[in-house]
Amino acid sequence: MSDTATPENTLTRPAQTATGASPSTRDIDATMNTRLAALHTPKLRDEYGQQGSFLYIEDFLPRDYTERLIAAVHDVMPAVNRNYLPGHKAGGSVSRHTLDKLAPFIADLYRSEALIKWLETITGDKLQLSPEDDPHAYALYFYTRPGDHIGWHYDTSYYEGRRYTLLLGVIDDSSCRLDYELHTKTPGIPDQPGSVQYPPGAFVFFDGDKLRHRITPLGENEMRVSLTFEYVTNPSMRPFQRFISNMKDSIAYFGFRQVFRRKSGKTGQA
Ligand SMILES: [Fe+2]
Fold first, then answer.
1. Which of 11, 67, 199, 264 has a 20 to 30 Å separation from 242 between CA atoms?
2. Which residues contact 46 (CB under 8 A, 6 or more apart)?
3. What is the rounded CA–CA span in Å between residue 120 and residue 124?
4. Which residues does the annotated region (Disordered) include (predicted)?
5. Residues 54 and 205: beta-carbon distance below 8 Å
6. Global pTM?
7. How is the chain split into domains, by residue range?
8. 20: CA distance to ligand 1 center in Å?
9. What whole-number distance in Å separates Cα of residue 218 and Cα of residue 150?
């Protein structure tokens, strides 16, 4: 039952906004509309297409939003879940369930209609929020110990539709780089390597099934925190895909308690 799309998952938000949006949500939309209007969207849309569904913008978030995200990082520090997968990944994560309680600004920013509409313009896809029980919908990734990293991978969609990843830089006192390869799934176009060290407030956006990428290891006395938002085109998921996705999230990211907390009988409706 939890695999089916619910009204909360779909972007039927105008009614919600018209009648019941919190002031903070309206403020966020106004601020993001102003910020996004200053971007050269047609040029960025072309760039996204030419790069095989990948876009990087170094100066994206309003400065005070970046500062609010940095403050949120300090609020959630005690709740970081550390994971280690030998040869593939080491680092910490805070799932959407914890952010809902400790950093609601992040949840509001994730749901910003202005942001989502702009991403729809970039992708040409109708985007939906990730389901209530997906811990990746919005999450913070922590690189705090020497060697923290994640190896080469795709952000594979276990959903019926596409899964888009938006990364926002929050803290980067590190030498870590996001290395990536464009066009790996595009016949007739050679792979194109790239690398970026995205600073606080920067934007990285891609189709998870198309961008091969990694984060290089953290050095001594370094720290890095990144925020991820996940949007999908169809939030349905088949049971076997659900099982694989849950196991991966439990082991590699958030721990079993966070991932399976929704199975305890609560509907998760706010
Ligand atoms: Fe990734």
1. 11
2. none
3. 5
4. 1-27
5. yes
6. 0.85
7. 23-264
8. 34
9. 10
